Amino acid sequence: MVNVGVLGATGMVGQRFIQLLDKHPDFEITALAASSRSAGKKYEDATTWYLDDAMSDSVKDIIVSETEPSSVGNDVEILFSALPNGHAAIVEPKFAEKFVVASNASVMRIEKDVPLVVPEVNPEFLDIIDVQQKNRGWDGFIVTNPNCCAIPLSLTLKPIYDNYDINRVYVSTMQAVSGAGYNGVPSMAIVDNLVPYIAEEEEKLEEETLHLLGNLNDLGVTPAKFGLTTSCHRVAVIDGHTEAVFVELDQDIDIDDIKKNIANFKSVPQELDLYSAPKNPVIVREEDNRPQPRMDRNADGGMAVTVGRIRKDSAFDNSFKYVLMGHNTVRGAAGTSILNAELINKTIL
Amino acid sequence: MVNVGVLGATGMVGQRFIQLLDKHPDFEITALAASSRSAGKKYEDATTWYLDDAMSDSVKDIIVSETEPSSVGNDVEILFSALPNGHAAIVEPKFAEKFVVASNASVMRIEKDVPLVVPEVNPEFLDIIDVQQKNRGWDGFIVTNPNCCAIPLSLTLKPIYDNYDINRVYVSTMQAVSGAGYNGVPSMAIVDNLVPYIAEEEEKLEEETLHLLGNLNDLGVTPAKFGLTTSCHRVAVIDGHTEAVFVELDQDIDIDDIKKNIANFKSVPQELDLYSAPKNPVIVREEDNRPQPRMDRNADGGMAVTVGRIRKDSAFDNSFKYVLMGHNTVRGAAGTSILNAELINKTIL
Amino acid sequence: MVNVGVLGATGMVGQRFIQLLDKHPDFEITALAASSRSAGKKYEDATTWYLDDAMSDSVKDIIVSETEPSSVGNDVEILFSALPNGHAAIVEPKFAEKFVVASNASVMRIEKDVPLVVPEVNPEFLDIIDVQQKNRGWDGFIVTNPNCCAIPLSLTLKPIYDNYDINRVYVSTMQAVSGAGYNGVPSMAIVDNLVPYIAEEEEKLEEETLHLLGNLNDLGVTPAKFGLTTSCHRVAVIDGHTEAVFVELDQDIDIDDIKKNIANFKSVPQELDLYSAPKNPVIVREEDNRPQPRMDRNADGGMAVTVGRIRKDSAFDNSFKYVLMGHNTVRGAAGTSILNAELINKTIL
Amino acid sequence: MVNVGVLGATGMVGQRFIQLLDKHPDFEITALAASSRSAGKKYEDATTWYLDDAMSDSVKDIIVSETEPSSVGNDVEILFSALPNGHAAIVEPKFAEKFVVASNASVMRIEKDVPLVVPEVNPEFLDIIDVQQKNRGWDGFIVTNPNCCAIPLSLTLKPIYDNYDINRVYVSTMQAVSGAGYNGVPSMAIVDNLVPYIAEEEEKLEEETLHLLGNLNDLGVTPAKFGLTTSCHRVAVIDGHTEAVFVELDQDIDIDDIKKNIANFKSVPQELDLYSAPKNPVIVREEDNRPQPRMDRNADGGMAVTVGRIRKDSAFDNSFKYVLMGHNTVRGAAGTSILNAELINKTIL
User: Fold this and answer.
1) D315: nearest CB among C197, C206, C238
2) Which Pfam families does this chain map to (chains A, B, C, D) (predicted)?
3) What is the ipTM for the molecules in this complex?
4) pTM surpassing 0.80?
């Protein structure tokens, strides 16, 4: 068993980490770090638990530690970070001197020597870790997972990108409120309403998706070359981000072939049979009215993205469109971070 | 005063007609027709009223008539039709033998000699009425308004189409539940959820929008030539359809110029100062987080479409994107039908 | 293994039966009956699945049978009925000639020789079965479970009723939309709204709760004698009925003693260790803001009722109040029906 | 015209004050005070407007002033306070040295010489103003309106209390999210959920309702003597608090007589024909499924409370029950405060 800890353990993504790590066969939570206000208390007493599943008994009595490398214990190997960006920027590098940091924060994603990875999409980017450790003189390192919309989008685009020449992609999102944190979206803003804007979301979604599908070389990552534009919106859904995707290829469309490539897509986590890896990263459904957040977000424990309505787009040559939906705090955040750690544990540590 | 009637008067769009016609300076409701089950009763007793505003006293005592030309009274000149398609196909032509029928049903929109009109977009299409009357030997005629998403989309595209060369348009909708009728969307389907499909909606939205922006000539209507693709979704909003729109032009973009053209757009209803015409058909807002259904759907009595987030799209050359929102049962249905009738009343009758 | 079937298998409560029976150690589904429209098809093809958890593979290929005793197979012993009342009234007695019928329908609950049972509350009422079989000359019999609000209310009142003298009970409910069936509550009726009325609900809730707490004797059931009044309301919640309960005793209040009696309540299903029996039928929480439907409805697989805010009521002598919440289609319907069958299987069959 | 100002003008209740005062025939807004962060800016620039109706042009250019008596201008006579309690406790007394303060804050309601008034219920309590001015040496004074649930409850109980002997009242509320302020209820807490607790709400509702129905005498106010208990809950409704009410009288019930007394109830504001006074403070509806927040909250501009389901309660002697619903930020807050000011303006100033 590898001892692991969670930074930002009392927040919503922190709780999702704890829930997903419960009964994990390889990782055991031994450290939970949070703000000074919580430090010193039992986790159960420090935390307002937000998830539908009850808090696991195994973490209730863990004493919350300060968010400092010296506080989490020497026996910890991996720290999952659910810290907000400001704090992550300061603290994650300190932890990385000694520990593996698998981070959901976006602040370090832009560093050239920090791998931004979705294990099914670009596992080879973990090779940058050597550079990172050399550059910075760290014994540990930081690995990051992308934005909650970029993860499911890249998972569905990967089998397309690998098999065809993508020319253009247009994406319009309908995102769940949990993506903004527990207090992020007031009910006054979303009941009988929607909000057509999420700060910095379109930038991240566009940049990170092209990065994930890009090419690692000596100069760093060369992003994928096709055009990608997005429009991001918040809707009255608790969990599950939905994206309407329009794709133009540089070649003729065989819609059945495309469906088959998406449905049959498997990658390294499936080959290595990693614990959190879904059987299929993307589930293709044939019903007209799927995917739906409430019906599909828990597919394969929330780690599979569901795609539906894959159809030819007669408005443009060589074009098709589809709708995807993935659990934003499982596949779109904590789950992918854990899958990264499982891949690292199996192949690097 | 012109005497008018409403067909399908007890349903949701029928009620919206009645609400919008209340205190109308030129139209007076003298006939309300519905199914045989309702016929013979006072409107107040025949109807479960669904709108937030209370039923107007002026219609409460009207005796509901059968949906037959002989039942609505000879003094009626215009009939607004909120009938479902199946019924509309049979009944509207009968009424058109004698009356002006302003219909919200989609079934007659495909007839070559039936004008499909948004008064600000293609008022000249009313010229087909002559052909229709000659073809069919009718004293009256049918005029139709488009689909609830095509109306606001065409209103925002019109000033773009008139001033630039549109190459491509991609649209993703987030539509209110009222669009499906009172019983159309079960709460089980939409609370904490969304449905990424609306039957036949994408087809109508694409075809009708290109038709509205098309060109009337001797052979009928030649649709606009640019590519238009859509993806339609239902969300947990009572009233107000939102659409994320991506536009590619065939020329350079001057985003301020585009904004100005949209914001300053006025057309025939504004020139004629029609009663239901909004001051501006499209209101441009500068805030990042607008338009929002609950905040903007009642702009100018629900007759103005609100547009926000008009921004350059750096992913593609000559491209920009925006978000629009319009009240789907006012501007997107009954309100446009009434505006059509006002235009006809002023220019034809 | 006992072979079981589900009547009304394609509807929402029918689906809940199937979900809860999946992997059951003693019951195996071998028959699924539905309307003639579905009969002859594979269950998977006949059904629009409404539940968040995916349909179990084990039922997908079962051929749906007609809702007739001759169609479900001779090897079936127990039939769970999720039929609507009208159909149940006709069909359930026919099935009971030969099979055990555990019914969620309300129509047979009023029959004097048909036991209305919540296993933790009044298991002894199963003794009426002998009378029923004798009266009607049946080899099988019918057992019913109560209304979805009466089940959790009776579960929380039972330990109070057994330990104190109840004088008055006032109940105000906030009920989930799933209680009305998939199409029961239009989204137009409940988004940004609530409906303060549910047909026949108050009558059932009052009558059945007093019946469950009543006394079985030679003349039938003598209902409990205290006054019970209710007001029933529908709110925008998918699953989980909440009830605000005000109780007046005929004796002094010791609020800690009351809490203890509710929290420690166990009964026959717990003693017999029945498979679907929750460890504690009622979970008492101390947080001010609990129970909440989304957080607590799945407690102990949805079979435990959660109670919070047990507090002295200073407005009246000898009074206290509390809030309860239970999953309305699990504990409040299919789950209690299955628990009845488990009790019958262990003690009678 | 009387010049008036609003304290806490940028918050949600402050905005409601401004909306309701727009086009007021007797009051003209000349001062808008808010926090130092806003002071000095134009109101339009200082405020994120939350209401569906657009901000009135007449206030957009008013320069926001500091919340100090010296800043609001000498020509102001009445200040409406939408301040939070902590600030109100400090600032309102300072303003009252010189101005009339009509406050929606709860902090001063408990002061013996500060009238807590609903104009239709206890207008005579304004007589305490003299005592207040004498006690405190103020030229102005403070008048307060009650809690958002106590206002509609007292309005419906008043005609009952005046005509019968009330023995007991049990109330269970279902309250809108706007009552907690714009950021008060996170969407994560209320979508597909409800919260069975609102801090201090039950205490205020019970105490203030009995106070309003009480008796003013030389010793102050003697509260009404009947027992009143409440349970308060938050549901997914934007505006409109609903209350299920159970009443026991000390005498026989004539349900038609009770209905008539409630429906015909009029009081001083109706007699004086005050501008904001609804024609009937309480509207009685006969439909089973009313009142509903979305349908009834705007009745008579949001100033009328709607009552439905008035019915005999067969569980107890001399008992009946009903459901009420009122707009919580109009009738339940700013609207009653303005009505208080209108009454004062007509009878005292």
Assistant:
1) C206
2) Semialdhyde_dh, Semialdhyde_dhC
3) 0.96
4) yes
